[in-house]
Protein backbone atom coordinates (compact mmCIF):
# COMPACT_ATOMS: atom_id res chain seq x y z
CA UNK A 1 0.00 0.00 0.00
CA UNK A 2 1.38 3.42 -0.98
CA UNK A 3 1.07 6.45 1.25
CA UNK A 4 0.04 9.60 -0.65
CA UNK A 5 1.53 12.80 0.71
CA UNK A 6 0.34 15.23 -1.93
CA UNK A 7 -1.61 18.47 -1.98
CA UNK A 8 -2.61 18.03 -5.65
CA UNK A 9 -4.15 15.23 -7.70
CA UNK A 10 -2.15 12.01 -7.53
CA UNK A 11 -1.66 10.22 -10.85
CA UNK A 12 0.58 7.43 -12.02
CA UNK A 13 3.66 8.66 -13.90
CA UNK A 14 5.43 5.36 -14.60
CA UNK A 15 5.70 4.30 -17.32
CA UNK A 16 5.64 7.72 -18.94
CA UNK A 17 4.02 6.27 -22.06
CA UNK A 18 1.22 3.86 -21.05
CA UNK A 19 1.65 1.47 -24.00
CA UNK A 20 5.11 0.57 -22.72
CA UNK A 21 3.60 -1.38 -19.83
CA UNK A 22 2.08 -3.92 -22.26
CA UNK A 23 5.22 -5.94 -23.15
CA UNK A 24 6.49 -5.58 -19.59
CA UNK A 25 3.46 -7.13 -17.89
CA UNK A 26 3.50 -9.86 -20.55
CA UNK A 27 7.12 -10.63 -19.64
CA UNK A 28 6.19 -10.60 -15.95
CA UNK A 29 3.33 -13.00 -16.52
CA UNK A 30 5.30 -15.42 -18.71
CA UNK A 31 8.21 -15.82 -16.28
CA UNK A 32 6.90 -15.00 -12.80
CA UNK A 33 3.20 -15.89 -12.68
CA UNK A 34 2.42 -17.71 -9.43
CA UNK A 35 5.64 -16.52 -7.74
CA UNK A 36 6.00 -13.99 -4.93
CA UNK A 37 6.85 -10.38 -5.76
CA UNK A 38 9.90 -10.31 -3.48
CA UNK A 39 13.33 -8.73 -3.86
CA UNK A 40 14.87 -11.76 -5.55
CA UNK A 41 12.16 -12.01 -8.19
CA UNK A 42 12.18 -8.24 -8.70
CA UNK A 43 15.90 -8.40 -9.49
CA UNK A 44 15.37 -11.41 -11.72
CA UNK A 45 12.62 -9.54 -13.59
CA UNK A 46 14.96 -6.61 -14.26
CA UNK A 47 17.68 -8.99 -15.47
CA UNK A 48 15.23 -10.37 -18.04
CA UNK A 49 13.84 -6.96 -18.93
CA UNK A 50 17.28 -5.52 -19.71
CA UNK A 51 17.74 -8.19 -22.39
CA UNK A 52 14.51 -7.28 -24.19
CA UNK A 53 14.49 -5.12 -27.32
CA UNK A 54 11.59 -3.02 -26.02
CA UNK A 55 13.48 -1.87 -22.90
CA UNK A 56 15.46 1.38 -23.11
CA UNK A 57 16.55 1.83 -19.49
CA UNK A 58 19.21 0.20 -17.39
CA UNK A 59 17.85 -0.45 -13.88
CA UNK A 60 21.45 -0.86 -12.76
CA UNK A 61 21.66 1.09 -9.48
CA UNK A 62 18.91 -0.77 -7.63
CA UNK A 63 17.26 -3.41 -9.86
CA UNK A 64 14.63 -4.35 -7.27
CA UNK A 65 13.57 -0.71 -6.88
CA UNK A 66 13.47 -0.29 -10.67
CA UNK A 67 11.23 -3.35 -10.95
CA UNK A 68 8.83 -2.02 -8.32
CA UNK A 69 8.79 1.37 -10.04
CA UNK A 70 7.75 -0.23 -13.32
CA UNK A 71 5.18 -2.71 -12.00
CA UNK A 72 3.81 -1.29 -8.72
CA UNK A 73 2.90 2.04 -10.29
CA UNK A 74 1.02 1.98 -13.60
CA UNK A 75 0.33 -1.76 -14.01
CA UNK A 76 -0.83 -2.37 -10.43
CA UNK A 77 -2.51 1.00 -9.88
CA UNK A 78 -4.59 0.59 -13.03
CA UNK A 79 -5.59 -2.97 -12.20
CA UNK A 80 -3.57 -4.90 -14.78
CA UNK A 81 -1.56 -7.01 -12.33
CA UNK A 82 -1.96 -8.54 -8.88
CA UNK A 83 1.22 -8.80 -6.79
CA UNK A 84 -0.12 -10.39 -3.59
CA UNK A 85 -0.12 -13.12 -2.46
CA UNK A 86 1.47 -14.11 -5.78
CA UNK A 87 2.02 -12.48 -9.18
CA UNK A 88 -0.87 -12.75 -11.63
CA UNK A 89 -2.52 -10.83 -14.44
CA UNK A 90 -6.05 -9.60 -13.83
CA UNK A 91 -8.69 -10.11 -16.55
CA UNK A 92 -8.01 -6.49 -17.58
CA UNK A 93 -4.28 -7.22 -17.82
CA UNK A 94 -4.86 -10.29 -19.97
CA UNK A 95 -7.17 -8.32 -22.26
CA UNK A 96 -4.61 -5.50 -22.53
CA UNK A 97 -2.10 -8.00 -23.91
CA UNK A 98 -4.47 -9.93 -26.17
CA UNK A 99 -6.86 -7.31 -27.59
CA UNK A 100 -5.89 -5.83 -30.98
CA UNK A 101 -7.07 -2.34 -29.97
CA UNK A 102 -6.11 -1.10 -26.54
CA UNK A 103 -7.92 2.26 -26.28
CA UNK A 104 -11.16 1.03 -24.69
CA UNK A 105 -9.21 -1.09 -22.18
CA UNK A 106 -7.14 1.88 -21.06
CA UNK A 107 -10.29 4.00 -20.82
CA UNK A 108 -12.11 1.64 -18.45
CA UNK A 109 -9.10 1.36 -16.16
CA UNK A 110 -8.47 5.10 -16.05
CA UNK A 111 -12.09 5.80 -15.18
CA UNK A 112 -11.86 3.41 -12.19
CA UNK A 113 -8.59 4.77 -10.80
CA UNK A 114 -9.33 6.60 -7.53
CA UNK A 115 -7.85 8.22 -4.45
CA UNK A 116 -8.30 7.16 -1.71
CA UNK A 117 -8.18 3.41 -2.36
CA UNK A 118 -6.76 0.32 -0.67
CA UNK A 119 -3.67 0.87 -2.87
CA UNK A 120 -3.26 4.59 -2.16
CA UNK A 121 -3.84 6.03 1.31
CA UNK A 122 -3.51 9.78 1.91
CA UNK A 123 -1.44 10.86 4.91
CA UNK A 124 -2.55 13.41 7.50
CA UNK A 125 -0.44 16.01 5.66
CA UNK A 126 -1.97 15.40 2.22
CA UNK A 127 -5.02 16.92 0.60
CA UNK A 128 -8.41 15.46 1.54
CA UNK A 129 -8.83 13.27 -1.52
CA UNK A 130 -12.21 12.09 -2.81
CA UNK A 131 -11.82 11.76 -6.54
CA UNK A 132 -11.44 9.63 -9.64
CA UNK A 133 -8.81 11.89 -11.20
CA UNK A 134 -9.01 10.90 -14.87
CA UNK A 135 -12.81 10.97 -14.84
CA UNK A 136 -12.82 14.53 -13.51
CA UNK A 137 -10.11 15.76 -15.90
CA UNK A 138 -12.21 14.38 -18.77
CA UNK A 139 -15.13 16.32 -17.32
CA UNK A 140 -13.05 19.50 -17.08
CA UNK A 141 -11.89 19.23 -20.70
CA UNK A 142 -15.44 18.56 -21.86
CA UNK A 143 -16.77 21.53 -19.87
CA UNK A 144 -14.37 24.01 -21.45
CA UNK A 145 -14.13 22.43 -24.89
CA UNK A 146 -10.39 22.99 -24.82
CA UNK A 147 -8.07 23.06 -21.80
CA UNK A 148 -4.59 24.55 -21.97
CA UNK A 149 -1.71 22.57 -20.52
CA UNK A 150 -0.90 25.54 -18.24
CA UNK A 151 -4.49 25.46 -16.94
CA UNK A 152 -4.24 21.75 -16.22
CA UNK A 153 -1.02 22.32 -14.27
CA UNK A 154 -2.23 25.29 -12.24
CA UNK A 155 -5.88 24.39 -11.63
CA UNK A 156 -6.84 20.95 -12.94
CA UNK A 157 -4.42 19.26 -10.56
CA UNK A 158 -6.12 21.02 -7.63
CA UNK A 159 -9.28 18.97 -8.24
CA UNK A 160 -8.56 16.58 -5.35
CA UNK A 161 -12.26 16.27 -4.50
CA UNK A 162 -14.86 16.05 -7.27
CA UNK A 163 -17.21 18.18 -5.16
CA UNK A 164 -14.80 21.08 -5.79
CA UNK A 165 -15.38 20.90 -9.54
CA UNK A 166 -17.30 24.19 -9.79
CA UNK A 167 -14.64 25.92 -7.69
CA UNK A 168 -11.90 24.80 -10.10
CA UNK A 169 -14.01 25.93 -13.07
CA UNK A 170 -14.29 29.38 -11.48
CA UNK A 171 -10.53 29.53 -10.99
CA UNK A 172 -9.91 28.77 -14.67
CA UNK A 173 -12.52 31.35 -15.74
CA UNK A 174 -10.81 33.97 -13.57
CA UNK A 175 -7.40 33.07 -14.99
CA UNK A 176 -8.66 33.44 -18.57
CA UNK A 177 -10.11 36.85 -17.81
CA UNK A 178 -6.89 38.01 -16.16
CA UNK A 179 -4.87 36.63 -19.07
CA UNK A 180 -7.02 38.57 -21.57
CA UNK A 181 -6.54 41.73 -19.54
CA UNK A 182 -2.79 41.26 -19.27
CA UNK A 183 -0.95 43.18 -21.97
CA UNK A 184 2.52 42.23 -20.78
CA UNK A 185 4.69 39.18 -21.24
CA UNK A 186 2.61 35.97 -20.91
CA UNK A 187 5.51 33.96 -19.53
CA UNK A 188 5.98 36.43 -16.69
CA UNK A 189 2.21 36.68 -16.09
CA UNK A 190 1.93 32.87 -15.92
CA UNK A 191 4.91 32.59 -13.56
CA UNK A 192 3.41 35.13 -11.16
CA UNK A 193 -0.02 33.48 -11.29
CA UNK A 194 1.48 30.03 -10.69
CA UNK A 195 3.54 31.33 -7.78
CA UNK A 196 0.40 32.72 -6.15
CA UNK A 197 -1.47 29.42 -6.61
CA UNK A 198 1.43 27.40 -5.22
CA UNK A 199 1.59 29.62 -2.14
CA UNK A 200 -2.11 28.91 -1.53
CA UNK A 201 -1.77 25.17 -2.08
CA UNK A 202 1.29 24.85 0.19
CA UNK A 203 0.41 27.60 2.65
CA UNK A 204 0.52 25.33 5.71
CA UNK A 205 3.89 23.84 4.75
CA UNK A 206 5.37 27.29 4.23
CA UNK A 207 4.03 28.54 7.58
CA UNK A 208 5.34 25.43 9.37
CA UNK A 209 8.74 25.69 7.67
CA UNK A 210 8.39 22.32 5.95
CA UNK A 211 10.08 23.51 2.79
CA UNK A 212 13.10 21.23 2.43
CA UNK A 213 12.72 18.96 -0.59
CA UNK A 214 14.23 15.53 -1.07
CA UNK A 215 17.85 15.22 -2.19
CA UNK A 216 18.73 18.77 -1.16
CA UNK A 217 19.51 20.72 1.97
CA UNK A 218 18.07 23.89 0.46
CA UNK A 219 14.99 24.81 2.51
CA UNK A 220 14.31 28.12 0.79
CA UNK A 221 10.73 28.85 -0.22
CA UNK A 222 11.80 29.64 -3.79
CA UNK A 223 13.49 26.24 -4.19
CA UNK A 224 10.51 24.52 -2.56
CA UNK A 225 7.99 26.15 -4.91
CA UNK A 226 10.19 25.55 -7.95
CA UNK A 227 10.32 21.82 -7.11
CA UNK A 228 6.55 21.64 -6.58
CA UNK A 229 5.94 23.42 -9.89
CA UNK A 230 8.21 20.93 -11.68
CA UNK A 231 6.40 17.99 -10.06
CA UNK A 232 3.04 19.40 -11.13
CA UNK A 233 4.23 19.71 -14.73
CA UNK A 234 5.32 16.06 -14.63
CA UNK A 235 1.92 14.99 -13.28
CA UNK A 236 0.07 17.03 -15.90
CA UNK A 237 2.24 15.65 -18.70
CA UNK A 238 1.61 12.08 -17.55
CA UNK A 239 -2.11 12.80 -17.27
CA UNK A 240 -2.28 14.00 -20.88
CA UNK A 241 -0.34 10.99 -22.14
CA UNK A 242 -2.65 8.56 -20.37
CA UNK A 243 -5.79 10.36 -21.57
CA UNK A 244 -4.33 10.28 -25.08
CA UNK A 245 -4.05 6.47 -24.85
CA UNK A 246 -7.87 6.26 -24.80
CA UNK A 247 -8.13 7.72 -28.31
CA UNK A 248 -10.75 10.20 -27.08
CA UNK A 249 -8.71 13.40 -26.97
CA UNK A 250 -6.88 15.59 -29.44
CA UNK A 251 -3.67 17.45 -28.68
CA UNK A 252 -2.86 20.84 -30.19
CA UNK A 253 0.92 20.68 -30.06
CA UNK A 254 1.38 24.31 -31.07
CA UNK A 255 -1.42 25.64 -28.88
CA UNK A 256 -0.47 23.23 -26.09
CA UNK A 257 -4.06 22.31 -25.33
CA UNK A 258 -6.24 19.23 -25.04
CA UNK A 259 -9.78 18.70 -26.37
CA UNK A 260 -12.28 15.91 -26.97
CA UNK A 261 -12.24 14.34 -30.45
CA UNK A 262 -15.45 15.75 -32.01
CA UNK A 263 -16.52 12.39 -33.44
CA UNK A 264 -16.25 10.83 -29.96
CA UNK A 265 -18.04 13.47 -27.90
CA UNK A 266 -21.09 11.22 -27.47
CA UNK A 267 -18.90 8.48 -25.99
CA UNK A 268 -17.39 10.91 -23.48
CA UNK A 269 -20.77 12.37 -22.58
CA UNK A 270 -22.07 8.85 -21.93
CA UNK A 271 -19.49 7.85 -19.32
CA UNK A 272 -19.50 11.31 -17.73
CA UNK A 273 -23.23 10.93 -17.16
CA UNK A 274 -23.19 7.28 -16.10
CA UNK A 275 -19.99 6.72 -14.11
CA UNK A 276 -20.22 7.07 -10.32
CA UNK A 277 -17.95 9.90 -9.19
CA UNK A 278 -17.48 8.49 -5.69
CA UNK A 279 -14.53 6.24 -4.80
CA UNK A 280 -15.54 2.67 -3.89
CA UNK A 281 -14.26 -0.21 -1.70
CA UNK A 282 -11.87 2.14 0.10
CA UNK A 283 -11.32 -0.28 2.99
CA UNK A 284 -11.72 -3.58 1.14
CA UNK A 285 -8.69 -4.49 -0.96
CA UNK A 286 -10.12 -7.81 -2.16
CA UNK A 287 -13.32 -6.20 -3.50
CA UNK A 288 -11.40 -3.26 -4.95
CA UNK A 289 -8.98 -5.57 -6.77
CA UNK A 290 -11.85 -7.53 -8.34
CA UNK A 291 -13.62 -4.29 -9.31
CA UNK A 292 -10.47 -2.77 -10.79
CA UNK A 293 -9.67 -5.85 -12.87
CA UNK A 294 -13.22 -6.24 -14.23
CA UNK A 295 -13.13 -5.82 -18.01
CA UNK A 296 -16.83 -4.85 -18.17
CA UNK A 297 -16.73 -1.87 -15.79
CA UNK A 298 -17.62 0.91 -16.05
CA UNK A 299 -20.25 0.66 -18.76
CA UNK A 300 -19.44 2.60 -21.92
CA UNK A 301 -21.56 3.76 -24.83
CA UNK A 302 -20.13 0.90 -26.90
CA UNK A 303 -21.67 -1.59 -24.44
CA UNK A 304 -25.16 -0.44 -25.43
CA UNK A 305 -26.25 -2.03 -28.71
CA UNK A 306 -28.77 0.61 -29.69
CA UNK A 307 -26.42 3.50 -28.92
CA UNK A 308 -23.60 1.75 -30.75
CA UNK A 309 -25.82 1.37 -33.82
CA UNK A 310 -26.52 5.13 -33.65
CA UNK A 311 -22.78 5.82 -33.31
CA UNK A 312 -21.96 3.72 -36.36
CA UNK A 313 -24.69 5.35 -38.44
CA UNK A 314 -23.53 8.84 -37.46
CA UNK A 315 -19.81 8.25 -37.97
CA UNK A 316 -19.94 5.91 -40.97
CA UNK A 317 -23.31 6.39 -42.71
CA UNK A 318 -21.98 4.60 -45.81
CA UNK A 319 -21.67 1.27 -43.97
CA UNK A 320 -24.59 -1.15 -44.43
CA UNK A 321 -25.14 -2.92 -41.10
CA UNK A 322 -26.42 -6.52 -41.47
CA UNK A 323 -29.61 -7.46 -39.67
CA UNK A 324 -29.23 -9.37 -36.43
CA UNK A 325 -25.59 -8.45 -35.89
CA UNK A 326 -24.66 -8.86 -32.20
CA UNK A 327 -22.81 -6.42 -29.92
CA UNK A 328 -19.27 -7.90 -30.29
CA UNK A 329 -19.70 -7.91 -34.07
CA UNK A 330 -20.85 -4.29 -33.99
CA UNK A 331 -17.77 -3.33 -31.95
CA UNK A 332 -15.57 -5.10 -34.47
CA UNK A 333 -17.35 -3.30 -37.31
CA UNK A 334 -16.72 0.09 -35.71
CA UNK A 335 -13.11 -0.77 -34.93
CA UNK A 336 -12.41 -1.91 -38.49
CA UNK A 337 -14.09 1.17 -39.97
CA UNK A 338 -11.96 3.47 -37.83
CA UNK A 339 -8.82 1.54 -38.76
CA UNK A 340 -9.64 1.84 -42.47
CA UNK A 341 -10.30 5.56 -42.10
CA UNK A 342 -6.95 5.99 -40.34
CA UNK A 343 -5.09 4.18 -43.11
CA UNK A 344 -6.84 6.37 -45.67
CA UNK A 345 -5.81 9.54 -43.84
CA UNK A 346 -2.20 8.35 -43.65
CA UNK A 347 -2.20 7.37 -47.32
CA UNK A 348 -3.50 10.81 -48.35
CA UNK A 349 -0.89 12.44 -46.14
CA UNK A 350 1.90 10.39 -47.77
CA UNK A 351 0.71 11.42 -51.25
CA UNK A 352 0.78 15.09 -50.25
CA UNK A 353 4.25 14.68 -48.74
CA UNK A 354 5.72 12.96 -51.82
CA UNK A 355 4.38 15.78 -54.01
CA UNK A 356 6.18 18.33 -51.80
CA UNK A 357 2.84 19.97 -50.96
CA UNK A 358 3.75 19.79 -47.27
CA UNK A 359 7.32 21.06 -47.66
CA UNK A 360 6.63 24.40 -45.96
CA UNK A 361 4.66 22.74 -43.16
CA UNK A 362 7.47 20.24 -42.50
CA UNK A 363 10.05 23.02 -42.42
CA UNK A 364 7.91 25.11 -40.07
CA UNK A 365 7.40 22.17 -37.72
CA UNK A 366 11.16 21.55 -37.54
CA UNK A 367 11.67 25.23 -36.69
CA UNK A 368 9.09 24.93 -33.91
CA UNK A 369 10.88 21.83 -32.62
CA UNK A 370 14.22 23.65 -32.53
CA UNK A 371 12.56 26.56 -30.70
CA UNK A 372 10.82 24.13 -28.31
CA UNK A 373 7.45 25.66 -29.14
CA UNK A 374 5.48 22.41 -29.27
CA UNK A 375 3.78 20.42 -26.52
CA UNK A 376 5.31 16.94 -27.05
CA UNK A 377 8.56 17.75 -28.83
CA UNK A 378 9.98 14.17 -28.93
CA UNK A 379 6.80 12.85 -30.54
CA UNK A 380 6.66 15.70 -33.04
CA UNK A 381 10.34 15.21 -33.93
CA UNK A 382 9.72 11.52 -34.65
CA UNK A 383 6.59 12.22 -36.70
CA UNK A 384 8.05 15.14 -38.66
CA UNK A 385 11.24 13.22 -39.44
CA UNK A 386 9.09 10.42 -40.87
CA UNK A 387 7.37 13.02 -43.06
CA UNK A 388 10.75 14.43 -44.11
CA UNK A 389 12.18 10.99 -45.00
CA UNK A 390 9.03 10.24 -46.99
CA UNK A 391 9.57 13.46 -48.95
CA UNK A 392 13.34 13.14 -49.23
CA UNK A 393 13.59 10.22 -51.65
CA UNK A 394 11.93 7.04 -52.91
CA UNK A 395 11.35 3.90 -50.90
CA UNK A 396 8.84 2.49 -48.47
CA UNK A 397 9.12 4.68 -45.35
CA UNK A 398 7.47 3.29 -42.22
CA UNK A 399 7.01 5.19 -38.97
CA UNK A 400 6.84 2.98 -35.90
CA UNK A 401 5.08 5.62 -33.84
CA UNK A 402 1.42 5.11 -33.00
CA UNK A 403 -1.16 7.07 -34.99
CA UNK A 404 -4.63 7.95 -33.73
CA UNK A 405 -7.88 7.22 -35.60
CA UNK A 406 -7.35 10.30 -37.78
CA UNK A 407 -3.74 9.66 -38.78
CA UNK A 408 -2.23 12.10 -36.31
CA UNK A 409 0.77 11.21 -34.09
CA UNK A 410 -0.31 9.68 -30.79
CA UNK A 411 2.79 8.23 -29.10
CA UNK A 412 6.41 7.45 -29.94
CA UNK A 413 7.75 4.04 -30.99
CA UNK A 414 7.62 1.46 -28.19
CA UNK A 415 11.34 0.80 -28.12
CA UNK A 416 11.73 -2.67 -29.67
CA UNK A 417 12.52 -1.25 -33.11
CA UNK A 418 13.89 1.81 -34.83
CA UNK A 419 11.81 4.99 -34.86
CA UNK A 420 11.62 4.89 -38.66
CA UNK A 421 12.42 2.12 -41.13
CA UNK A 422 13.15 2.84 -44.80
CA UNK A 423 13.08 0.01 -47.34
CA UNK A 424 14.85 0.80 -50.62
CA UNK A 425 14.66 -2.78 -52.00
CA UNK A 426 18.43 -3.25 -52.43
CA UNK A 427 19.26 -1.87 -48.98
CA UNK A 428 17.57 -0.53 -45.86
CA UNK A 429 17.90 2.44 -43.55
CA UNK A 430 16.85 2.90 -39.95
CA UNK A 431 16.34 6.41 -38.61
CA UNK A 432 16.54 7.26 -34.92
CA UNK A 433 15.68 10.64 -33.42
CA UNK A 434 16.05 12.10 -29.95
CA UNK A 435 15.75 15.37 -28.08
CA UNK A 436 18.32 14.16 -25.54
CA UNK A 437 21.59 16.08 -25.31
CA UNK A 438 24.84 15.88 -23.39
CA UNK A 439 26.07 12.61 -21.89
CA UNK A 440 22.47 11.52 -21.44
CA UNK A 441 22.22 11.23 -25.23
CA UNK A 442 24.93 8.56 -25.28
CA UNK A 443 23.61 6.73 -22.21
CA UNK A 444 20.03 6.40 -23.45
CA UNK A 445 20.53 6.09 -27.21
CA UNK A 446 23.98 4.64 -27.98
CA UNK A 447 23.36 0.92 -27.45
CA UNK A 448 19.69 0.83 -28.46
CA UNK A 449 20.37 2.51 -31.81
CA UNK A 450 22.98 -0.14 -32.63
CA UNK A 451 20.69 -2.93 -31.45
CA UNK A 452 17.79 -1.70 -33.61
CA UNK A 453 20.03 -1.56 -36.69
CA UNK A 454 21.26 -5.11 -36.02
CA UNK A 455 17.66 -6.30 -35.62
CA UNK A 456 16.72 -4.72 -38.95
CA UNK A 457 19.67 -6.37 -40.72
CA UNK A 458 18.82 -9.80 -39.29
CA UNK A 459 15.14 -9.57 -40.22
CA UNK A 460 15.67 -8.23 -43.75
CA UNK A 461 18.94 -9.94 -44.70
CA UNK A 462 20.35 -7.07 -46.75
CA UNK A 463 22.77 -4.16 -46.26
CA UNK A 464 21.44 -1.49 -43.92
CA UNK A 465 22.58 1.81 -42.46
CA UNK A 466 21.34 4.15 -39.75
CA UNK A 467 20.79 7.90 -39.57
CA UNK A 468 20.80 9.38 -36.06
CA UNK A 469 19.26 12.86 -35.69
CA UNK A 470 19.20 15.21 -32.69
CA UNK A 471 19.18 19.00 -32.25
CA UNK A 472 22.81 18.67 -31.13
CA UNK A 473 25.17 15.68 -31.25
CA UNK A 474 27.22 14.82 -28.17
CA UNK A 475 30.93 14.10 -28.59
CA UNK A 476 30.65 10.67 -26.94
CA UNK A 477 27.98 9.67 -29.47
CA UNK A 478 30.27 10.72 -32.32
CA UNK A 479 33.11 8.66 -30.88
CA UNK A 480 30.87 5.63 -30.30
CA UNK A 481 29.40 5.56 -33.80
CA UNK A 482 32.80 6.21 -35.40
CA UNK A 483 34.20 3.18 -33.59
CA UNK A 484 31.31 0.99 -34.74
CA UNK A 485 32.20 1.80 -38.37
CA UNK A 486 35.52 0.04 -37.80
CA UNK A 487 34.73 -2.64 -35.23
CA UNK A 488 33.32 -5.98 -36.37
CA UNK A 489 30.93 -7.23 -33.67
CA UNK A 490 29.05 -10.45 -34.45
CA UNK A 491 26.25 -9.55 -32.02
CA UNK A 492 25.49 -6.44 -34.12
CA UNK A 493 25.90 -8.21 -37.46
CA UNK A 494 29.42 -6.96 -38.19
CA UNK A 495 30.34 -3.29 -38.51
CA UNK A 496 27.60 -0.70 -38.03
CA UNK A 497 27.27 2.31 -40.32
CA UNK A 498 25.53 4.89 -38.12
CA UNK A 499 25.78 8.56 -39.07
CA UNK A 500 24.86 11.20 -36.45
CA UNK A 501 23.67 14.54 -37.80
CA UNK A 502 22.43 17.72 -36.09
CA UNK A 503 18.86 18.57 -37.00
CA UNK A 504 19.91 21.76 -38.79
CA UNK A 505 22.18 19.75 -41.13
CA UNK A 506 19.33 17.31 -41.82
CA UNK A 507 17.14 20.31 -42.67
CA UNK A 508 19.71 21.37 -45.27
CA UNK A 509 19.48 17.89 -46.84
CA UNK A 510 15.71 18.30 -47.08
CA UNK A 511 16.06 21.72 -48.69
CA UNK A 512 18.54 20.29 -51.23
CA UNK A 513 16.06 17.54 -52.07
CA UNK A 514 13.35 20.15 -52.66
CA UNK A 515 15.58 22.44 -54.73
CA UNK A 516 17.20 19.77 -56.88
CA UNK A 517 16.41 19.84 -60.60
CA UNK A 518 15.55 16.14 -60.38
CA UNK A 519 13.89 13.78 -57.93
CA UNK A 520 16.53 12.23 -55.63
CA UNK A 521 16.74 8.45 -55.77
CA UNK A 522 17.71 5.74 -53.26
CA UNK A 523 21.19 5.56 -54.82
CA UNK A 524 21.89 9.06 -53.50
CA UNK A 525 21.12 7.91 -49.97
CA UNK A 526 23.27 4.79 -50.29
CA UNK A 527 26.14 6.79 -51.77
CA UNK A 528 26.08 9.08 -48.74
CA UNK A 529 26.37 6.21 -46.26
CA UNK A 530 29.03 4.40 -48.26
CA UNK A 531 30.97 7.67 -48.23
CA UNK A 532 30.75 7.56 -44.44
CA UNK A 533 32.34 4.09 -44.50
CA UNK A 534 35.13 5.36 -46.77
CA UNK A 535 35.75 8.35 -44.49
CA UNK A 536 35.87 6.14 -41.40
CA UNK A 537 38.47 3.90 -43.06
CA UNK A 538 40.58 6.83 -44.22
CA UNK A 539 40.54 9.01 -41.07
CA UNK A 540 42.42 8.64 -37.79
CA UNK A 541 39.94 10.24 -35.40
CA UNK A 542 36.22 10.63 -34.83
CA UNK A 543 36.59 14.41 -35.13
CA UNK A 544 38.03 14.15 -38.63
CA UNK A 545 35.37 11.64 -39.68
CA UNK A 546 32.49 13.66 -38.24
CA UNK A 547 33.70 16.86 -39.89
CA UNK A 548 33.93 15.08 -43.22
CA UNK A 549 30.54 13.40 -43.08
CA UNK A 550 28.83 16.62 -41.94
CA UNK A 551 30.32 18.45 -44.93
CA UNK A 552 29.15 15.62 -47.18
CA UNK A 553 25.63 15.92 -45.77
CA UNK A 554 25.58 19.65 -46.46
CA UNK A 555 26.46 18.92 -50.09
CA UNK A 556 24.88 15.50 -50.55
CA UNK A 557 23.37 16.32 -53.97
CA UNK A 558 26.04 18.81 -55.08
CA UNK A 559 27.85 16.49 -57.51
CA UNK A 560 24.70 15.61 -59.42
CA UNK A 561 23.72 19.29 -59.70
CA UNK A 562 27.19 20.01 -61.15
CA UNK A 563 26.86 17.21 -63.69
CA UNK A 564 23.42 18.41 -64.81
CA UNK A 565 24.63 21.97 -65.30
Automatic annotation (TrEMBL):
Pfam families: RE_AlwI. CDD domains: BspD6I-like (cd22316). GO terms for molecular function: endonuclease activity; hydrolase activity. Its EC number is 3.1.21.-. It is an enzyme of class 3 (hydrolase). Keywords: Endonuclease, Hydrolase, Nuclease. It comes from the Bacteria. This is AlwI family type II restriction endonuclease. It comes from Mucilaginibacter jinjuensis.
Amino acid sequence: MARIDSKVIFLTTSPRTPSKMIPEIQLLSEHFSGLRWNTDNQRAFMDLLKEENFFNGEGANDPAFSARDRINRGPKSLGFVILSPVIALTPAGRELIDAPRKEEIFLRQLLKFQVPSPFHRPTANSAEFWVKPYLEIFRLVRHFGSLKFDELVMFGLQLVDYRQFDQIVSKIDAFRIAKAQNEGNYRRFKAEYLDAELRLIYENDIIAGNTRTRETEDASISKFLKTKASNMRDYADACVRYLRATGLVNISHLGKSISIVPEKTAEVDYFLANTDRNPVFIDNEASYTIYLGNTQLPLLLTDNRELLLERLAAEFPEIAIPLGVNLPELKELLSNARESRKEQFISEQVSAIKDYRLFDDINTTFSQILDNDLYDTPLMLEWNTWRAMTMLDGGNIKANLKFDDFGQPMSTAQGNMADIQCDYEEFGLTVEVTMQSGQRQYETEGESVTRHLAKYKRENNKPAYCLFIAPNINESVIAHFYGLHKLHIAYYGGTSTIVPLPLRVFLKMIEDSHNAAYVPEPRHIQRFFEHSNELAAATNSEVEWYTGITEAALNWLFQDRQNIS
